[in-house]
Amino acid sequence: MEILLEEFYKIDLHLDKYHDRKVQIDERSYQINGITKSGKTQLVKSYLLSHKKSSYLYIDCNDIRIDVETLNDSLNKFCKDNRIDILVFDNYKEEFNFPNVSQLIITSEKKLPIPELDTLDLYPLDYEEFLAYEHKYDSSALNHFFQLGGLAVMHKIYSDERNIYLQQVFQNALDNIEFDILILCAKFNSQKLSAFTIYERLKAKRKISKDKLYKSFESLVEKKYIHLLEKFNHTRATKKVYLCDTSLKSALSLEKNFGRLFENMVYLELQKQNKELYYDDDLEFYLPQDDEIILCKPFADERKVFKKLESLEAFIFTYSIRKITVVTMNKEGSLSHPLSKVNIIPFDVWALGD
């Protein structure tokens, strides 16, 4: 194992066309959590390459040459002898022991109960981060965002290979049941969907226990491959399901509904703000801390928006909504409303706003 550690220590790390993320690593020790291809490895390598090569050791725990027991026995001495300040366990597995180093960084799909490590959640690119990969910012940028989603690697994949690539990547990252659940969630994205409904649909196709399916469903939520949104003031109501990245919709499903895909995209921008967020009947998102509701109407005109607001007046009055944001594809404007400020904003302007 000494020979392998020497190889890890001496090998040169490479980073191709990397753009800084909003999440950054400083001198603290971290666990970095995120789905496959969210950019965890690139973020770590970017940080390491800003330090002297002799000061760090990068280990990918997926390397099949590693004998964990032997590595655990050797690693502490190796780090001490070579004065390693920063150790990275990429794709960390819990059987690896931590040596005594100044800074420890691990990456994992799910958050692990390691109190000595600060947590960084890394999501796929948001729209602002995505624009860094565009050759120019014009009207085509938003269309590219719909096509490619937030996985930076998709900029390197030819258009005719993207769906198969995504299928293979996510099939390799998940077990069989998790992947089947993800396919159903892609079909029903931005709609109410329960684990029981998924069980009823899958049991007709394969032998599966309810307990196993529920655990797999919870695992997908924990690892943030899917996101669940609760109905306001109805904790037991069926939650709405959203995909971790909009590119999965076309890769895993033949269902076509641009409105739901657009809603999923708006949700992904919102959930990164770590604000309290709910859905309710006839409205997509309610932010109680901001006294705001957000409606997703990609192609709505002012007349349709006004008619929609009429159906929401009871909610607006009851909860003293001060701000109504209508997110569209390209419509922009404002409406006069006796109770609230109503802004109609194109997605690209809204996503890049404060």
Description:
This protein is α/β, with parallel strands linked by helices. It has helices at residues 2-10, 40-48, 68-81, 127-131, 140-148, 162-173, 176-187, 195-202, 210-222, 247-252, 258-271, 302-311, 313-318, 347-351; strands spanning 30-33, 56-60, 86-90, 103-108, 118-121, 191-192, 226-229, 240-243, 278-280, 283-287, 292-296, 323-328, 333-335, 341-346. It is globular, with a radius of gyration of 23 Å. The model has no long low-confidence stretch (mean pLDDT 95).
List keywords for this structure.
354 residues, alpha/beta, 6-stranded mixed sheet, 5-stranded parallel sheet, 14 helices, 18% strand, globular
Radius of gyration (Å): 23 Å
Approximate strand percentage: 15-25%
- Report the end-to-end length measured between terminal Cα atoms: 51 Å
The overall average pLDDT, rounded, is 95
Uncertain ranges: none
Order of helices and strands: HEHEHEEEHHHHEHHEEHHEEEHHEEEH
How many H/I helices? 14
Task: Write a short abstract of this structure.
By secondary structure, the protein is of the alpha/beta class.
Secondary-structure map with pairings?
Elements: H1 2-10, E1 30-33, H2 40-48, E2 56-60, H3 68-81, E3 86-90, E4 103-108, E5 118-121, H4 127-131, H5 140-148, H6 162-173, H7 176-187, E6 191-192, H8 195-202, H9 210-222, E7 226-229, E8 240-243, H10 247-252, H11 258-271, E9 278-280, E10 283-287, E11 292-296, H12 302-311, H13 313-318, E12 323-328, E13 333-335, E14 341-346, H14 347-351
